[in-house]
Amino acid sequence: MKLSEYFLPTLREDPAEAEAVSHRLMLRAGMIRKLASGIYSWLPMGLRTLRRVENIVREEMDRAGALEVLLPLVQPAELWKETGRWDNFGKELLRFKDRKEHDFCLGPTHEEVITDLVRREVRSYRDLPLILYQIAPKFRDEIRPRFGVMRAREFLMKDAYSFDADEEGLNRSYEAMYEAYQRIFSRCGLRFRAVLADTGAIGGSESHEFMVLAETGEDRLALCEACGYAANVELAESKKEFSYPEEKERPLEKVATPGVKSVEEVAAFLGVPPSKLVKTLLFRAGGEVVAVLIRGDLELNEVKLRNLLGVPEVEMADAETVKRVTGAPVGFAGPVALSGVRILADLSVRGLRNFVTGANEADAHLVNVNYGRDFPEPEFYDLRVVSEGDPCPRCGRPLAVTRGIEVGHIFKLGTKYSEAMRATFLDREGKERPLVMGCYGIGIGRTVAAAIEQNHDHAGIIFPREIAPFEALILTLGPEAELMEISERIYHTLNSSGVETLWDDRDERPGVKFKDADLIGIPFQIIVGRRFKETGRVEVKERSTGQREDLLPEEVVKRLQGSA
Ligand code: ATP
Ligand code: MG
């Protein structure tokens, strides 16, 4: 393509609304434009990148034996009622009525639709295993769409679903998808890790997330370099044991702490370390309020709490609930004389003596609090977010905590959907049994954004070659016929040798061309300028390393093919 005929609206300035680097760069590089909150158009340069990821995903799904289908985005409510998700999915499910007043939704995921399809067509164990996939838009009415296409409301996803006769079959399908995912993200040129993941609202027994490693990621991962244990901190465990020196119980005391609320403030005010404080966190969970105690310097893991309580969601209690339960404003809750709520405690509190808590009274804290004496011994559980350096749950060596962006997620669903929707088959003995299912997603758009989060510098995007919109960009630095002719020759040779090349033939200043070139991140820049007139050579610059080489025009193809 010639840039003079292309649609590449680049922006000089950083758009104010973009918080994430990838969002900023995708807007500036003319890849996407916003239509409405969380809803984006893909422009030619962006779409080429999206398609390259999509093609890698499609090739690897096909290679793994999955079969491509295309399922409707608009789905009837009846299916969602069968699984109970019409009521349970929450507000991410966008519901509406058609002209006949029938309920529909936009598909945020397709378990119901695929299970309906398969229950009508699959009869016998002979039809199994079966893995179907699609690459199609999803709609989720995200509470806080952000970071551009990374957390959008409408987005492109690859979703696959496996159907097997038994657990063993499911394990094989899961393994095949796991391996396909490893190949996909390697081929995309990304640094990533597969981590153990929470199964969340989708349910099921085992799950892995594929995380692109990036400082800016929303997820935190606990990794053990020694034994390879890798888990989302949401469910990461640790062998850490808390033990405290013997201490005599001292008399309980109430102290005035006017306006002093946060752990840091209270610790500083009382002259004790934050580890001597016990936070009392109040949550709403399945219609009841629970109090959770955890040491002041540690972080509560809401996913562990949710799983422990067996509810779909836990939510921090609002100010009104806190006031009703404790009689005090937010910031002064404590377990002493706290009635009518279940009290749980993290293991870090077991054995702790003479600690500090809120007094359930505005501007007051209690010191020398001891469970067993001042309030009943609570139920202890592992409810803590692991921290850097905690011993690995498998081998005991120190864990590292790093950040990542979830680009893929695979689940063993088991028979959750097939039982709810009566999707069965006849086994070898002619007995009717529910299909055993797995589901496997990849955010195609999010993968593009994650690649940019991981690969950029101050000047712009640095695309991994495998997913770049073009492999080479020719910059012609002047209108002279001699420069245009040789540029055109290189352009045709490269394109006809399979190196997809864009040609900046615009009547623009060199400075503008260089800036745009670095911004859009095409892996190789071929600079045809004054030097060509003097030496007959062009300059090839590699975007990722900044390395430059002077080459004869006829050497360019070999250089670019050679570095594939
Ligand atoms: P998250 O925890 O980030 O909300 P999820 O667990 O809801 O993700 P899945 O339901 O597993 O995501 O969806 C499969 C994949 O779809 C995710 O791994 C992610 O790459 C992508 N995805 C999910 N939600 C969005 C979104 N709002 N915008 C873009 N991609 C998304
Ligand atoms: Mg989500």
From TrEMBL:
Enzyme class name: ligase
Main subcellular location: cytoplasm
Highest taxon above the source species: Bacteria
Pfam families in UniProt: HGTP_anticodon, tRNA-synt_2b, tRNA_edit
Occurrences of domain Aminoacyl-transfer RNA synthetases class-II family profile (ranges): 38-464
The protein's assembly and partners: Homodimer.
Protein name: Proline--tRNA ligase
